[in-house]
Each structure stands twice: as C-alpha cells, then as structure tokens.
Design goal:
The chain is built from eight helices and 13 strands. By secondary structure, the protein is α/β, with parallel strands linked by helices.
Amino acid sequence: MQKILVVEDNETLREELKILLENAGYEVALVRDFSNVGKQMADAGSDLVLLDINLPGTNGEVLLQDFRKEKDTPVIMLTSRTGKMDEVLSMSFGADDYIMKPYNPTILLLRISAVLKRGLRKEQTRHYHDVEVSLTKGSLTRGDKEQILTKNEMIIFELLLEQQGEIVSRDELMTTLWDNDEFLNDNALSVNISRLRGKLADLGIEDGIETRKKQGYVLK
C-alpha cells in the first residue's frame, strides 16, 4: 500500500484529505505539529507528499527546496493562492504537480495517481513474487521465460500490482485506462484480464488474478 504524507495546517481540510485518501486505498500520515516539518517530511518514508504552501511559521516552497536536497519523493503542492508566481516557483523548486484549493476530489486523486505512476516508471523495474516486471519494456520475466504485455495489459497489471492483495474495481481500472488515454469498453477489459491471466499462467503462475464477483479483481 502506497503511503501519502499530508502537510496541511487546516484541521478540517487535513481530516477530509485523510478520509478521501484512505477510501482510495492509500496509507495516510498527517503532520499536526508544525515546529519541525522538514524533519517529519524527511523521516516519513512516504511515497508522495501533499504539501500546503501557507503553513504556520514557514513556507511550503522553502520546505520543498530543502526537501529536494535530500529526497526525490514526489511532491504535489496545495494552495489557495491564485497567483501564477506560486506555481512557477513550486515547479522550479522541484514540485511534481500543483493544485488549487478548493480542489475537486476526483481530479486530485487522478493527479496523485499520475504522479505516482511517473515515479514508478523512473524505477524501471519492479517485482511480483519472483517475476521481474519491466515497466519500460512492458514485460514479465520469470527465469528463462518472458511475456510481453500490450500497453493496456501493462496499465492494468501495474494498477493490480500497486494494490496487490486488495480488490481493484472495474471502474477504477477503466478510469486508470482513461487517464492514460486508453479507452476500453467493459467487454474489452474482460478480454485483457483474460489475456493477462494466460500470460501469468505461461510463466507458471496459475490463478494469479482472482475475480471477486460484482467487486473487481485481486492480484494474489
């Protein structure tokens, strides 16, 4: 489960973000003490940081600048300001994205998903049990066997792998494909899932993707 650190001094908004992110399947850590935010950001071990610009006694852009000296963890800046200069400064200091408050929850989740995916691609390879997953090549390799995935199959497999052991709904899969400019109808999604199962089986992994009726799929 991917972890998101929320650095937001507005208690109501902070708690709303916590609920939104947890409902979307993320682990959430909150900064509530703003006396040493930089250290908390560095020590959190998060996969992404949501960082407000206006904070008590400090400035999110300054925190970001210092954070980038040690960490390359993705950061999305949150702000209620309307000035373009904040966006320019945030991106120049190393922000991965910038979103205005009040935010649309769906858009925020899509932006978070997109930023996390870019981070995963930088890593190039991941692992599923003893299978090497090449994100750049789009392949699954186990021993001397290799299976090449189509773009849609890889998008689906990445999402299932990010949430391994948890139910991923068909709607979430369709939304992720749409977010990547790939369009599948419901029947085509079923076909892609079937092909993925077949490719995993060819690598010796039977029943790797379990169907939960009326709920979605689980990568075991």
